[in-house]
Amino acid sequence: MTACIKPKNLNRSSFRATPHIRFEDYKKAFEYWLNYSDKRIKAIVFAENSGYELIELKKIANKKNIYKRNIEFLQFEETERLPGVHYGYSDMEIIDYAIYNSKLITSNSIIIKTTGRLYFPQLNKLLDLQDKKQYDFFSDARDFSFWKLEKHYVVTTLFIMKTSFYKQHLFDIKRELAENTASHMETLYFKTLKPLRQSNRIQLGFPFLISTIGIGAHSNSDYASFKKRIEAIGLFILRRILPAS
Q1: pTM, whole model, 2 decimals?
Q2: Which of 192, 117, 104, 106 lies closest to 158 in space, CA to CA?
Q3: Element (DSSP H or E) covering residue 156
């Protein structure tokens, strides 16, 4: 779970920039994953980059960890981003930090990365596929071209990956955002991963719709709202019927 409870670099136009609102989102998602019934989830690493006090989360972990999962809290101070650098840089920095500092993540781990304020009830269906296919990297994506409409990016709110693959191909590619050779985390991941598909087990695009539960930080819209669900269905259909570039 990647988290930034008290962002110092987040544009104040974000509807969910207030720390106590964000913290409530993280608490809800954290408790959800503690109680998620799939026993393939052996541990939860909560990695946070603002130094916000986590006593309440630790109390929840002690009292409501019904599946006795290993829990680890990691914290550090995020790097000050240069003007114009996308906030995805900070999310990538959290992932890098967690992989190299966690005592629970090993070189043989399968990591489920989630944006910490969100949760995904159908994760178990993705884990079924992961067990069967043994993907190095498995995410949803948009990769289609139609007239003036083009979408080519990885959805980074939820993805599954092998630690060894991440270290070899994705660790510290955030520097490309800082160097302005890429604009967003999502497009940078896509640009990096798509050429690797011939020599690695990479799946860009979930074969079915995965529901997202939570509130968008910048839009302040509920992912479960009718509008968001229609948008998700429409993009899924476009991805299935339109050719990739």
Answers
A1: 0.90
A2: 117
A3: strand 149-162
CA distances in angstroms from 122 to 131, 209, 218, listed in the order given = 15, 9, 24
Distance CA 214, CA 118 (A): 5
User: In this structure, are residues 123 and 112 in contact, taking their beta carbons and an 8 Å threshold?
Assistant: yes
Instruction: Quote the CA–CA distance of 20 and 33 in Å, as a whole number.
Output: 20
CA distance 88 to 94: 10
Q: What single-letter DSSP state applies at residue 205?
A: S
Closest CA to 142 of 89, 185, 190: 190
Phi, psi of 172 (to 5 degrees): 65, 15
Query: Whose CA is closest to 184, among 83, 89, 49?
Result: 89
Tell me which residue of 232, 112, 115 sits closest to 166, measured CA to CA. 112
Tokens at 87, concatenated: 């906030």
Partner residues linked to 24 by β-bridges: none
Instruction: Please give the Cα distance from 6 to 62 (Å, whole number).
Output: 24
Q: Which tens digits make up the pLDDT trace of 127-167?
A: 999 999 999 999 999 887 777 778 899 999 999 999 999 99
Least Cα distance to 175 among 88, 50, 107 occurs for 88
What does the block give as tokens for 174? 């955030």
| Cβ–Cβ < 8 Å for 89, 178 | yes
Alpha-carbon distance 132 to 155, whole Å? 22
